[in-house]
């Protein structure tokens, strides 16, 4: 398993008490598979993604990346883990305005300590994979919303992560572009052999994913059988 959450509980201060965001959540995501996480607003989807990304430390339970438990890691160690093993696609692309599409990716490689020659070659390959090889020299304002999101996805894959975490990638896109982005993430998951978690509120694009789980009041469960064309389960 590339990503494993075991009996994870996360709470936040809430007045005089604590609010439970995740309640004994267990989730296994093998490499080369895409698990979609659905649920209403406030159900715990974003908290699950933040814990999986090691951006938030749970109250209890363990997060394991490629067989390495993250419990007890220092802040610097977690930063290094995210830089080399975890790709994160945020809801908004947040591309750097002054950089071209290919430069957005090259910056990530520089942070990962890769050579400039290797960085450019991989950046071009990834832009080709997301259908933007002919847009490599364009800056964000010259790209459509769907194109910016595809650069965002390619950027997250730049350092060859084994875990890919995707947060609401279709929220700012129309139905057609949203479907294309989810299809792209699915294809890249299989091609790049990442363990991918896709958090989404839009259930209309999930027929091709490997598994769908739902979060309600911080608890994880399999989606109802027959609800989606993909397989279901929560490990």
TrEMBL record:
Gene3D superfamilies: P-loop containing nucleotide triphosphate hydrolases (3.40.50.300). CDD domains: ABC_MJ0796_LolCDE_FtsE. InterPro entries: AAA+_ATPase, ABC_transporter-like_ATP-bd, ABC_transporter-like_CS, ABC_transpr_LolD-like, MacB-like_ATP-bd, P-loop_NTPase. The keyword DNA-binding does not apply. GO terms for cellular component: plasma membrane. Residues 3-234 form the ABC transporter domain. One of its GO terms (molecular function) is ATP binding. Keywords: ATP-binding, Nucleotide-binding, Transport. It comes from the Bacteria. It holds the Pfam family ABC_tran. PROSITE patterns: ABC_TRANSPORTER_1 (PS00211), ABC_TRANSPORTER_2 (PS50893). PANTHER family: ABC TRANSPORTER RELATED, IMPORT ATP-BINDING PROTEIN. This is Putative ABC transport system ATP-binding protein. It comes from Micromonospora siamensis.
């Amino acid at each position: 398993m590339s990503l494993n959450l075991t009996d994870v509980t996360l709470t936040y201060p809430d007045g005089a008490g604590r609010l439970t965001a995740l309640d004994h959540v267990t989730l296994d995501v093998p490499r080369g598979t895409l698990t979609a996480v659905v649920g209403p607003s406030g159900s715990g989807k974003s908290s699950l993604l933040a814990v999986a990304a090691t951006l938030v430390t749970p109250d209890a339970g363990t997060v394991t990346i490629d067989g390495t438990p993250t419990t007890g890691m220092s802040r610097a160690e977690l930063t290094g883990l995210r830089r080399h093993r975890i790709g994160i696609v945020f809801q908004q692309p947040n591309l750097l305005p002054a950089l071209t599409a290919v430069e957005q990716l090259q910056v990530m490689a520089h942070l990962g300590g890769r050579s400039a020659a290797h960085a450019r070659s991989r950046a071009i390959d990834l832009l080709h994979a997301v259908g933007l090889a002919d847009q490599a020299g364009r800056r964000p304002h010259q790209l459509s919303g769907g194109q910016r999101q595809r650069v965002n996805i390619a950027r997250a894959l730049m350092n060859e992560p084994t875990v890919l975490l995707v947060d609401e990638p279709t929220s700012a896109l129309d139905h057609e572009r949203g479907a294309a982005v989810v299809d792209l993430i699915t294809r890249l998951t299989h091609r790049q052999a990442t363990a991918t978690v896709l958090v989404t509120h839009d259930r209309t694009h999930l027929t091709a994913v490997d598994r769908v789980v739902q979060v309600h009041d911080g608890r994880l469960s399999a989606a109802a059988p027959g609800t989606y064309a993909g397989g279901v389960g929560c490990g």
